[in-house]
Amino acid sequence: MWRDKDILGGGVFTLMGVAAFVMAQNYNPGSALNMGPGYMPRIVSAAIVLLGLVQVGGALMRRTERELLDSINWRALALVLLSIAAFALLIRSAGVIPAVTAMIVIAWWADPARNLRHLPALLVVGNLMPILIFNVGLGMHLALWRVF
Amino acid sequence: MLDGLLIGAAVAFTFQNLLYCFLGVTLGTFIGMLPGVGPLVTIAVLLPMTYGLSPESSMIMLAGIYYGASYGGSSTAILVNLPGESSSVVTCIDGYQMARRGRAGAALAVAAIGSFVAGCIGTLAIALFAPSLGRAALQFGAAEYTSIIVLALVATAVLSHGALVRGLLMALFGILLGMIGMDLNSGVMRYTFGFTSLMDGLDFVVVAVGLFAFAEIIRELSPKKEENLGHVKIESLMLTRQEARASVKPILRGTGVGMFFGVIPGIGATVSSFAAYLMEQRLAKDPSRFGKGAIEGVAAPEAANNAAAQTSFIPTLTLGVPGSATMALMIGALMIHGITPGPNIISERPNLFWGLVVSMWIGNVMLVMLNLPLIRLWTSLLKVPYSWLFPMILVLSSFGIYTLSNNPTDILWGATFGAFGYFMTKLNYSPAPFILGLVLGPMLEESFRRALLISHGDPATFIQSPISAGFLAASCGIIILMLVPAIRSKRANLESEA
After folding, report:
1. Which residue in chain B is spatially nearest to A104 when comparing CA positions?
2. How far is the C-alpha of B203 from the C-alpha of B406, rounded, in Å?
3. Looking at the DSSP assignment, which residues form a beta bridge with residue B189?
4. In this complex, is the C-beta atom of A109 within 8 Å of any C-beta atom belonging to chain B?
5. Which residues contact B486 (CB under 8 A, 6 or more apart)?
6. ipTM, 2 dp
7. What does residue A111 show for φ and ψ, rounded to 5 degrees?
8. What angle do helix axes B39-46 and B55-80 make, rounded to 10 degrees?
9. Which chain B residues are within 8 Å of A117, Cβ to Cβ?
10. pLDDT beyond 60 at B493
11. Residue A35 pairs with which residues in a beta bridge?
12. What is each CA distance from B303 to B86, B87, B97, B273, B484, in whole angstroms?
């Protein structure tokens, strides 16, 4: 039952709404005449909790067929996030070429239709494109590589 | 207005701006044809790069991508029965049927001509009505702004996905995340979790790239069966006399429908194309022809979605209230240059406003020339596999975020929102209301606060002003319209169970 999209989604929103509402207690609500920083967060997070509960409640009462969460593509998710993280870690310390190369190799690995013969071309185009756009076209000075 | 158009022509006809207009519409046509890459992703990715351009050039190019995509989207809808983007879904119905009957060329021609006529009339409508709406908007007080923002949020939340609670939840969550950072009035840090990178708030571009580029890539990389696209041959692009006569009125009616829906924040190209299609079906002498290749079923929705794409710039520019996620990105592009759209934009930035208006007309001319004679070239581009596209999108998006503030942490925030967007679409939540909530949230809080301050804390101020009351009534109307069929079908279910 926890895989029902309404129960799962509504439940997540309810929890986030509760958390936001609790955190909003640290902010001064003020009054309607003179709203403080806590006024809107309280209204909005309360509304989220309310609607989240409506969604979960509606799903629990429903007799019709449930719409279940289908399989999450963990492999693509993990590898794409990893490739972005690799880029973020390398771009400043190691420069454009190492960052792009790491990103493309990891992302290529995530592709179910990958072909090893395409990888060199992807690397060349992937490196040239940002260099041409940002360094040449827009005149930014992004270091291509740095020696440690 | 004539002076304005002359100023605009002087801006739009410079070599640089013609070039960016051409770049925009070409890119727009291309990405409109590719399924999985829409105008939202493209604009989100390009947004950081527009920093180096003048505000005029960047708006001209981004707008070109937006309305260019609706031309490209209709070509794939007709030829391979795949809507390249959401506003072309209706075109699939009759367009593909026409193509199967050997009238692909005629369907493409009527779609392009319909879009062109609608684009020209829509541009004229902006030139005519935006200044007066801008003047009317000067009368808008805090209460009116609060209500129109509520309307934009409710309409997007409800209409973008047809799911009331889901849409509202995403919009509210967007508003909540819009509060992250320092509260401008009190200086209190809200929801920063101690991250210094969150003290200035979430950067809208970072979130947009994460939600629309990264999440989309994760979604598209799932293993799926090779789709065999049935390619249709394009013979003559000429319309027969009968076809031409049959499409004149639908094009004009579609334009009217599109212009009307485009101006209302939160409604927009997709809804107006459906509305135009339904209207033609109602008006037709023989409604049974629809779905079997009726040319009216291509002409009217194509005109409507392009007209709506143009007129949706009216509230965006003159009120500063974006009516859709794409329009929110347009505002983001202006904010990069430190320009806040609003009632004064026409008088303060005539070059920007009129230049954009004139460039839209030029862009529509370019699009007809790009799309009709060169259609065979475009269809060969359709075969670019996603394996080649997604690494490039990934690289450009990451550079886009990084060059925004030279801060690698922003890229990680983008990745976080990519994961968030992926999980949310898996649970059937649509990202459009979220991004709109994020943009409109701070505006909503500020105008809500000011409205209550002026009225001494009396909430009746929102219904005492007729304009504000009208916006709120419209919001309630949309919600009720959505609830009524749900209740009815539930009752039908109960009866069938009993």
Report:
1. B391
2. 13
3. B182
4. no
5. B164
6. 0.93
7. -75, 120
8. 150
9. none
10. no
11. A30
12. 15, 11, 19, 8, 30
